[in-house]
């Protein structure tokens, strides 16, 4: 925490010199689109500004804490009269707010740049946690005790503050997943005390501990008749998880739970749906969502887990149809994926012990042989698969230990390539490309100037319908990109083929 003393010596609250016995801390947000603490300090540090004064501001641009009033001085931060009695007991601190929001009515606002706004909110939240931990230590306060660490909104409910909704209104409308309960626990943790009993809990975000071989071994032990196409897609959990910073082994363990170890016995979804987590099954009898390929289904699952576990932006384009319904960051731990165990009552599933069941499966996976990293196999010992694309496991013509035999198979099956175990295409027959038709079933598939999600959008979308692909290419964010016929001359109209099915 960077703490800068910037006492507003000309503000009447400072010159009055009235002292308080600090009994608590009250968190505010400024209620206007201004991330710079200096803007408020410069305005409020005046003899004529007698209507308000807080003890500190937290800058939204860099998280710097500016102390503007001695901590034991009486501020004027939560109203007047009896309904502002919190001024007599609580230190008041303001969180500066993003510049990209615009208030419309009361505490409601619109946001022109959600990523930027969330970054500001995250910076101020984290800085506030450190500051409140420091102040709690300084004044021997327990942040978990009743009425010690509160928001302006909570102060109003207690009858000691004016009728405001900050800062919860900011967090809620930005989908941050922050609550005052989580804030208090974070403060306690920052003080070096037990936070919420989460020591030893398993975070969803992070690097996978299990290997693909361990995951396959577990699955084959639980389901000896597991289809080869299922085994082939196991590495996708690790690659898609790594792309978003989500533990791929946690996602796989969840899929094992939701699909009965891919037997789909008693499951609401089927293998053909490429939905391995019950996504969209919100009540009995619902079939749930479907995805074009296993990779897209796993990607959507990983994105949904990230929605629960983090407030960070997605790396790939969002294909999770239920992403927007999640309160971001409300389930940091696997243990909190069950609504009954989640402190905020939110989570993936309503059934008791949902996260514990996933962890039990994960433990079983990690107990399989293959903990120690194995040396990379020689080329002649690797498995090479012949497919139209790595994501399209159903198109596989064979798997070979001999690269030459795999090449021969690809030559005998036009449109097929040879892929190594990482999914990289190592051979494609050099033949003249034959245009083909694809069907797009989503209304807003972006057209880009070049193949890759890192390339500029043309500003147009395909809409749903049938289109002709005249060229293919590799690129970021999709297993394969296709050039639309109408853009053939300048080669500046590409779509992700993950969102299109070949006719």
What does this structure look like?
- The chain contains twelve helices and 19 strands.
- The chain is α+β, with helices and mostly antiparallel strands and 503 residues long.
- The chain has four domains: 3-190, Peptidoglycan recognition protein-like (Lysozyme-like); 212-366, Lysozyme (Orthogonal Bundle); 379-428, no CATH class; 436-502, SH3 type barrels, CATH 2.30.30.
- The protein has a six-stranded mixed β-sheet with strand order 1-4-3-5-2-8, sandwiched between helices.
- A hairpin with an 8-residue loop joins strand 14 (446-448) and strand 15 (457-461).
List the helices and strands and how they pair.
Layout: E1 3-5, H1 12-16, E2 24-29, H2 37-44, E3 56-58, E4 65-67, E5 90-95, E6 101-105, E7 108-111, H3 114-138, E8 149-151, H4 152-157, H5 168-173, H6 180-190, H7 212-222, H8 228-244, H9 248-259, H10 294-309, H11 354-366, E9 384-387, E10 398-400, H12 403-412, E11 417-419, E12 425-428, E13 436-440, E14 446-448, E15 457-461, E16 465-475, E17 478-484, E18 494-496, E19 500-502
Parallel strand pairs: 1-4, 2-5, 2-8, 3-5
Antiparallel strand pairs: 3-4, 6-7, 9-10, 9-11, 11-12, 13-16, 13-19, 14-15, 16-17, 17-18
Helix pairs in contact: 3-6, 7-8, 8-9, 8-10, 9-11
Level-1 CATH class name of the largest domain: Alpha Beta
Q: Under CATH, the topology of the largest domain is which?
A: Lysozyme-like
Helix coverage percent of residues? 25-40%
- As residue ranges, the low-confidence spans are 370-381
Q: Strand order, biggest sheet?
A: 1-4-3-5-2-8
Number of distinct helices: 12
Radius of gyration: 28 Å
Number of self-contained structural domains = 4
Classification by helices and strands: alpha+beta
Compute the number of strand runs.
19
The CATH superfamily name of the largest domain is Peptidoglycan recognition protein-like
Q: Which whole number gives the mean pLDDT?
A: 88
The main sheet comes to:
6 strands, mixed
């Amino acid at each position: 925490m960077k703490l800068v003393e910037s006492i507003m010596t000309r503000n009447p609250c400072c010159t009055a010199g009235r002292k308080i016995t600090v009994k608590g801390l009250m968190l505010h947000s400024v209620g206007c689109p201004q991330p710079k603490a200096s803007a408020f300090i410069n305005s409020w540090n005046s003899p004529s500004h007698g209507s308000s004064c807080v003890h500190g501001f937290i800058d939204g641009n860099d998280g710097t804490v500016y102390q503007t009033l001695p901590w034991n001085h009486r501020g004027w931060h939560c109203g007047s009269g009896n309904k502002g009695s919190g001024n007599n007991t609580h230190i008041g601190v303001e969180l500066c707010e993003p510049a990209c929001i615009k208030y419309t009515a009361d505490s409601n606002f619109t946001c022109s740049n959600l990523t930027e706004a969330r970054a500001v909110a995250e910076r101020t939240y984290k800085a506030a946690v450190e500051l409140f931990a420091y102040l709690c230590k300084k004044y021997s306060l327990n942040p978990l005790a009743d009425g010690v660490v509160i928001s302006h909104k909570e102060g109003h409910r207690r009858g000691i503050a004016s009728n405001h909704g900050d800062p919860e209104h900011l967090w809620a409308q930005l989908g941050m997943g922050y609550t005052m309960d989580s804030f208090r626990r974070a403060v306690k943790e920052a003080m070096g005390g037990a936070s919420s009993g989460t020591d030893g809990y398993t975070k969803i975000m992070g690097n996978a501990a299990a290997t693909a071989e361990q995951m396959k071994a577990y699955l084959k032990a639980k389901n000896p008749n597991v289809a080869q196409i299922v085994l082939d897609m196991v590495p996708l959990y690790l690659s898609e998880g790594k792309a978003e910073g989500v533990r791929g082994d946690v996602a796989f363990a969840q899929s094992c739970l939701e699909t009965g170890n891919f037997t789909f016995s008693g499951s609401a979804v089927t293998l053909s749906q490429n939905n391995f987590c019950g996504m969209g099954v919100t009540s009995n009898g619902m079939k749930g969502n479907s995805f074009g390929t296993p990779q897209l289904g796993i990607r959507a699952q990983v994105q949904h887990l990230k929605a629960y576990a983090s407030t960070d932006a997605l790396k790939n384009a969002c294909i999770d149809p239920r992403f927007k319904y999640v309160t971001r960051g409300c389930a940091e731990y696997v243990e909190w994926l069950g609504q009954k165990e989640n402190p905020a009552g939110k989570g993936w599933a309503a059934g008791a012990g949902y996260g514990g069941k996933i962890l039990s499966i994960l433990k079983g996976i990690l107990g399989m042989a293959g903990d120690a990293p194995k040396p990379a196999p020689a080329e002649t010992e690797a498995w090479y698969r012949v497919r139209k694309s790595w994501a399209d496991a159903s198109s596989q013509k064979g798997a070979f230990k001999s690269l030459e035999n795999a090449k021969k198979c690809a030559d005998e099956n036009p449109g097929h390539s040879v892929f190594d175990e990482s999914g990289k295409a190592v051979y494609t027959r050099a033949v003249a490309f034959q245009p083909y038709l694809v069907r797009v079933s989503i209304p807003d598939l972006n057209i880009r100037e070049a193949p890759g999600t890192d390339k500029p959008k043309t500003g147009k979308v395909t809409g749903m319908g049938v289109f002709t692909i005249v060229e293919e290419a590799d690129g970021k964010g999709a297993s394969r990109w296709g050039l639309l016929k109408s853009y053939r001359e300048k080669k500046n109209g590409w779509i992700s083929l993950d969102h299109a099915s070949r006719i």
